[in-house]
Write a structure and sequence with these properties.
Layout: E1 10-16, E2 18-19, E3 31-32, H1 39-53, E4 61-69, H2 77-90, E5 92-103, H3 107-110, H4 113-118, E6 123-129, H5 133-138, H6 145-157, E7 163-169, H7 176-188, E8 193-198, H8 206-209, H9 217-233, E9 237-240, E10 243-245, H10 252-258, E11 262-266, E12 271-276, E13 281-287, H11 291-297, E14 304-309, H12 312-323, E15 330-331, H13 332-339, H14 347-355, E16 359-361, E17 365-368, H15 370-374, H16 376-382
Parallel strand pairs: 1-4, 1-11, 2-3, 4-5, 5-6, 6-7, 7-8
Antiparallel strand pairs: 8-10, 9-10, 12-13, 13-14, 15-17, 16-17
Helix pairs in contact: 1-2, 7-9
């Protein structure tokens, strides 16, 4: 039995699954955009989907919204304004709710940044990946260095004080110097936040079935180390495995995920995790993935692709798998508040990790040591045994 005295913060994820072109490394639920899609139909479907979810979140305020994909910035500012107006009419948002839109740096989309800002979007996450034209070509990206730089400049001009760059390392044909140049260019463009992570060959992607030649492990480790050093010198504090931010500019939406907060998901393939104080349980659910099917059933219960109620043992493991990704760890009281369970649920594993000097268990906080941070996968695996 769980014991929720308070509920975790609640976020809203909205999935828009279309792109101009599917990237060979992408394993997200995304599809190439055809000519027949009517944006208004999908916006209406999203709002119908949301209406069916409302009984699960009555009285709760939404602290952040993330519109992801796909490439949601393909939608017009008018469509996104209609979407956000519909969301505001149905749920309570915090006055300073963080509203993020994923965007790609094509010139047509970047030109819409000011209109996105007027629609109420106050944060962008721009998929740069690299500033090197040849590396972008190998990644199957449709933009180049010039468009990426222009997107950053237009984000500033549009009044976005908070925007993120997605930047990858360990790319096909990349060397240590190229990686350093990417980081230096990114820092010079003054984003508030950087997501810096290694390219991985995920199952069900073209790169997994036709693997490109990647840099050797020693070179990849050097890229990561030099990137982290440059980011620190540029004023970016690392607060999660791949997340770096200027002071006070951490992503609230993703931080809620990592702290095992709740989130509602609407859109094709969107996932949700909702805690229920009345039922004293936590449920994970997901919507059907195929966009055409989703559009046909979004206003009915058939939109639900599946759900499962988490077991006590699952909850403790999932909390730790997320919270230990945070560089500063977590407050011990957060475990009970966000899981409805006492810390004794995972105490045995925590003591074992502390004895191995992989975590530090202070009076109020638990976090990985420097050694534990380097071998974080091994730390997390201890909770799965």
């Amino acid at each position: 039995m769980f014991n929720f005295t308070t509920l975790p913060p609640l976020s809203l994820y909205i999935h828009i699954p279309w792109c101009v072109k599917k990237c060979p490394y992408c394993d997200f639920n995304s599809h190439e955009m055809g000519a027949g899609l009517l944006q208004g139909d999908y916006i209406a479907a999203l709002l119908s989907d949301l209406e069916q979810e409302l009984p699960r979140i009555w009285g709760r305020k939404v602290v952040s919204i993330f519109i992801g994909g796909g490439t949601p910035s393909l939608f017009s500012p008018e469509s996104l304004d209609q979407l956000l107006s519909g969301v505001r009419a149905r749920v309570n948002l915090l006055a300073d709710c963080e509203i993020t839109l994923e965007a790609n740096p094509g010139t047509v989309e970047a030109g819409k940044f000011a209109e996105f800002r007027s629609a109420g979007i106050n944060r962008l996450s721009i998929g740069i990946q690299s500033f090197n034209d040849e590396l972008l070509r190998r990644l199957g990206r449709i933009h180049g260095r010039r468009e990426a730089i222009s997107a950053a400049e237009q984000a500033h001009d549009a009044g976005f004080d908070s925007f993120n760059f997605d930047l990858m390392f360990g790319l096909p044909g990349q060397n240590i110097k190229m990686a350093a140049e990417d980081i230096a260019t990114a820092i010079d463009l003054e984003p508030a936040h950087l997501s810096y992570y290694q390219l991985t060959l995920e199952p069900n992607t073209l790169f997994h079935h036709q693997p490109p030649v990647l840099p050797v492990d020693d070179a990849i480790w050097a890229m990561q180390q030099q990137g982290q050093q440059a980011l620190a010198q540029g004023g970016f504090g690392q607060y999660e495995v791949s997340a770096y931010a200027q002071n006070g500019m951490q992503c609230r939406h993703n931080s809620n995920y990592w702290q095992f907060g709740d989130y509602l998901g609407i859109g094709a393939g969107a996932h949700a995790k909702i805690s229920d104080a009345n039922q004293q349980n936590i449920t994970r659910s997901w919507k059907i993935k195929q966009p055409a099917m989703y559009l046909g059933v979004a206003s009915s219960p058939a939109v639900l692709g599946g759900e499962r109620v988490l077991k006590r043992a699952d909850v403790g493991v999932e909390f730790m798998m997320n919270a230990l990704r945070l560089k500063g760890g977590f407050n011990t009281e957060l475990f009970a508040q966000h899981t409805g369970l006492p810390i004794t649920q995972v105490e045995e594993v925590l003591k074992r990790l502390e004895k191995k000097e992989l975590i530090e268990w202070g009076l109020n906080t638990i976090k990985t040591t420097e050694r534990g941070w380097r071998y974080l996968d091994s730390v997390v695996e201890e909770f799965l045994e």
